[in-house]
């Protein structure tokens, strides 16, 4: 609220025009007055003082400009007044913001021994025993006139903070009534609020005016200030100063100070203002101290919260955060430790795994080597069993060679025979020698110790080679061996010698089973039949069927067990090695009864994939 500038025109130029001619023709001195209880009150209190000045400057006169706090700020900012008569707090602000300078301090009739006269009285309704100290205000509702009122709020605010109560944080409610301040006393009296803050002496003034009954109130945390006549809850600060603006001429300021200092204590102006004249400007540093602690007015910038303030205010949260951080750090360390331990364990496990893998690889290599040895031994063993037959087989070409040679010798000795006949005999000898050589080469191939070599192999070829090796035995046992080899079979990816070995083993077993079986070779389908063809899944199947004694019940289940044999000189390794060989080629070997008597042992091998089919 800004009171309309109602200049109480006190120009008494006419009266005293000749007294101080220097000020003639000058505009009146304008004194801005803080009307904290409304314009009328300000007029009543301060008009006589301004009139006094007007009297002292007859050629110029003086006028009073009643202003509220914002009005004061605006008037000083605009330079529309020459002097300001304002409350202590407002003065400190104007001093800092606009460079106004105090030139005299009011000497209040109620001033204490120190000369200071401004303080606050915190009042509560009489009988409110729960509000005795300023600390009791915590959680209560409090009313003051205005946040900017010095004695009316700020002094009490500082005192409350000292008592541990922040009006802006610890109260249930903080309300501002605005001027006039009477409302505060009424609100306290009527129980609208628990307590009120009044500028010291306002309570007494209102009582004097008969507007309230002081018995209805008590002053909270009352304190005594030597020589000070009003009830008080706080310390005292200097009273209102008269201040000049920076733009106010020096000589005018001096003249005004002189005029004020010369005012007698019993002057009507002093009586009306309730003071006893003017005195030298007092020290307003305590006010600065208060404002600094409240961080208001010129010290508002201190409100920019510093880290330290935050830390002080929220220390418990910070402590909690620090604890949480500590926990987190400990947790992280623990997790890191666990990870390290786990990593070490994993590394060990890895090392162990690698060692086991190497061992396994070694074991596999050894097993493969053993298998190779076994194959070899098995081949030697089969060959051993058939040695006499093979010898017999070799005997034929050797016998033929000997016959041819002997015939040639006889003819030569008898002097008969033509060159053509001798050439023919030589060719026959060479052919028989080749045949014998082939048999020996095949045997050598068969028994050679060698690593398995997979390559596309013709199954029928392998069958033929195997049958060649046992043809002699079959013949001598008088057992016919029938070939039923399918044409156009796809090659299999296999070690040809091993396939030969399997076929030879199966045929040998078939011959063994048939030897001594009466009528085994006789009749339709008698003897041993070796059949090749494709099974339903496109695999190459080789079956060796015989009409021998067939599989006994025990042999049916233990046929492939190593060392299972029913033969007097048998080792019982043949079929178990055959199965290992076939399975290492991705195939399968099994035995069934031959429906016509005897047994059929078959095995299948997967056909070589296309990309291998053409490989050499
Ligand atoms: P071995 O020939 O040294 O006995 P094998 O593993 O080749 O070892 O054969 C094991 C056993 O399986 C033979 O002793 C025999 O009892 C039986 N057996 C193998 N083939 C036949 C077959 N075609 N007919 C009947 N029994 C067979």
Alpha carbon gap, first and last residue: 114 Å
**Unreliable stretches, pLDDT < 50, 5 or more residues?**
1-24
Overall number of domains: 5
What's the CATH first level of the largest domain? Alpha Beta
Fraction of residues in β-strands: 5-15%
Count of helix runs: 19
Structural class: alpha/beta
Radius of gyration: 66 Å
CATH architecture of the largest domain: 3-Layer(aba) Sandwich
Q: By CATH's scheme, which homologous superfamily of the largest domain applies?
A: Periplasmic binding protein-like II
How much helicity do the residues have? 40-55%
Small molecules (ligands, ions, cofactors) in the structure: adenosine-5'-diphosphate
Looking at the structure, the CATH topology of the largest domain is: D-Maltodextrin-Binding Protein, domain 2
The biggest beta sheet reads:
6 strands, mixed
- Order of adjacent strands in the largest pleated sheet: 2-1-3-10-4-11
How would you describe this structure in keywords?
616 residues, disordered N terminus, six-stranded mixed sheet, binds adenosine-5'-diphosphate, ATP-binding, five-stranded mixed sheet, 5 domains, D-Maltodextrin-Binding Protein, domain 2, 19 helices, transferase, coiled coil, HisK_dim/P_dom, alpha/beta, kinase, 15% strand
């Amino acid at each position: 609220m800004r009171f309309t500038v109602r200049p109480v025109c006190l120009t008494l130029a006419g009266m005293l025009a000749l007294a101080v001619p220097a000020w003639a023709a000058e505009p009146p001195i304008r004194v801005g007055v803080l009307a904290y209880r409304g314009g009328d009150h300000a007029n009543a209190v301060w008009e006589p003082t301004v009139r006094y000045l007007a009297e002292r400057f007859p050629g110029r006169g003086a006028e009073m400009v009643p202003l509220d706090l914002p009005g004061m700020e605006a008037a000083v900012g605009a330079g529309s007044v020459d002097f300001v008569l304002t409350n202590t707090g407002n003065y400190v602000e104007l001093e800092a913001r606009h460079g106004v300078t105090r030139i005299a301090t009011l000497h209040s009739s109620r001033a204490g021994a120190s000369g200071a006269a401004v303080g606050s009285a915190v009042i509560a309704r009489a009988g409110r025993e729960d509000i005795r100290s300023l600390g009791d205000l915590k959680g209560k509702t409090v009313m003051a006139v205005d946040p900017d009122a010095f004695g009316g709020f700020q002094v009490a605010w500082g005192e409350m903070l000292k008592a541990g109560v922040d009006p802006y944080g610890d109260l249930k409610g903080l309300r501002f009534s605005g001027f006039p301040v009477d409302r505060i006393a009424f609100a306290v009296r009527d129980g609208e609020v628990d307590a009120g803050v009044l500028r010291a002496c306002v309570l007494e003034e209102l009582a004097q005016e008969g507007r309230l009954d002081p018995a209805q109130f008590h002053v909270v945390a009352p304190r005594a200030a030597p020589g000070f006549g009003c009830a008080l809850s706080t310390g005292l600060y200097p009273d209102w100063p008269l201040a000049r603006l920076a733009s106010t001429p020096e000589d005018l300021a001096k003249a005004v100070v002189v005029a004020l200092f010369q005012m007698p204590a019993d002057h009507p102006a002093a009586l009306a203002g309730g003071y006893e004249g003017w005195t030298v400007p007092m020290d307003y540093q305590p006010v600065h101290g208060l404002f600094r602690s409240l961080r208001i007015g010129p010290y508002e910038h201190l409100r920019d919260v510093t880290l330290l303030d935050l830390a002080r205010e929220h220390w418990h949260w910070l402590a909690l955060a620090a604890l949480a951080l500590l926990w987190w750090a400990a947790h992280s360390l623990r997790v890191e430790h666990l990870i390290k331990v786990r990593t070490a364990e994993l590394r060990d496990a890895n090392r162990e795994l690698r060692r086991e893998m190497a061992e396994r690889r070694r074991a596999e290599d050894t097993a493969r080597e053993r298998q190779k040895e076994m194959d070899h031994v098995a081949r030697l063993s089969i060959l051993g069993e058939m040695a006499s037959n093979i010898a017999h087989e070799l005997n034929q070409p050797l016998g033929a060679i000997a016959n041819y040679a002997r015939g040639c010798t006889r003819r030569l000795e008898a002097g008969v025979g033509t060159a053509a006949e001798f050439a023919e005999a030589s060719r026959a000898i060479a052919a028989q020698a080749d045949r014998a050589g082939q048999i020996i080469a095949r045997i050598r191939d068969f028994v050679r110790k060698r690593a398995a070599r997979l390559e596309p192999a013709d199954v029928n070829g392998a069958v033929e080679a195997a049958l060649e090796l046992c043809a002699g035995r079959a013949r001598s046992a008088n057992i016919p061996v029938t070939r039923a080899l399918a044409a156009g079979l796809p090659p299999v990816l296999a070690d040809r010698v091993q396939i030969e070995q399997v076929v030879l083993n199966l045929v040998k077993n078939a011959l063994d089973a048939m030897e001594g079986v009466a009528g085994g070779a006789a009749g339709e389908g008698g003897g041993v039949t070796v059949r090749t063809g494709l099974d339903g899944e496109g695999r190459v199947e080789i079956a060796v069927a015989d009409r021998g004694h067939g599989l006994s019940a025990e042999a049916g289940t233990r046929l492939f067990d190593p060392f299972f044999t029913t033969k007097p000189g048998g080792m019982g390794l043949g079929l178990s090695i055959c199965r290992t060989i076939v399975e290492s080629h991705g195939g399968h070997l099994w035995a069934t009864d031959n429906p016509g008597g005897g047994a059929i042992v078959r095995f299948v091998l997967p056909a070589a994939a296309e990309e291998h089919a053409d490989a050499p």
